[in-house]
Amino acid sequence: MSLTATESVAMHAAPLSPALANVSLEDRCVLCVGGLTGARNHYRTQIETRAGRFLHHDGGREDNLHRLTPMLAAADIVICASGNISHNAYHLVKSTCKKLGKPCVLVKGTGIASFLDGLGHLAQAQATHDGPSARGDRVIRRRS
User: How far apart are CA 17 and CA 142, in angstroms?
Assistant: First the structure.
């Protein structure tokens, strides 16, 4: 899957969300489920430049769903591109995050801007202790 021109430019631009400006993930493990396969390295860069550890699961397209449960257990934070994963993976992410009390954001978009919005939202919620979803059900819709 190739990136659009807008997404390609966004990959090399500064973070899109002001919430990300001074965010440190403080060695927290961030699991990204779904998203654009071609943008995986960009997701990694965004996490690692903020002192986080990066995990990725494609949401059941090629990665085995049996691998997702232990990855969810190992993660401190979950960002899920809910429109780009299998139904089984979606329900597994929601139920496991709820059960384990993991902060989780389900983003509707699959691109880099949606990923950054989700990361910014999680970072703001963590900073204000406004837990986005220990229940795993916060959904961020990309603004047009």
Answer: 12
pTM: 0.73
The neighbour count for residue 87, using CB atoms within 10 Å, is 9
For the chain, the domains span: 24-140
Percent of the chain with pLDDT over 70: 68
**Euclidean distance between CA atoms 89 and 64, whole angstroms:** 10
∠ Cα 142 19 49 (to 5°): 100
On the 0-12 / 13-18 / 19+ scale of CB atoms within 10 A, 111 is: buried
Secondary structure element (H or E) that encloses residue 126, with its range: helix 112-128
- pLDDT tens digits along 66-86: 999 999 999 999 999 887 789
Distances (CA, A) of 119 to 16, 44, 136: 11, 12, 14
- Asked whether residue 102 carries a pLDDT value surpassing 50, the answer given is yes
**Could you tell me which residue, 37 or 52, shows the higher pLDDT?**
52
Cα diameter, the chain = 39
Q: Which CATH class is domain 24-140?
A: alpha beta
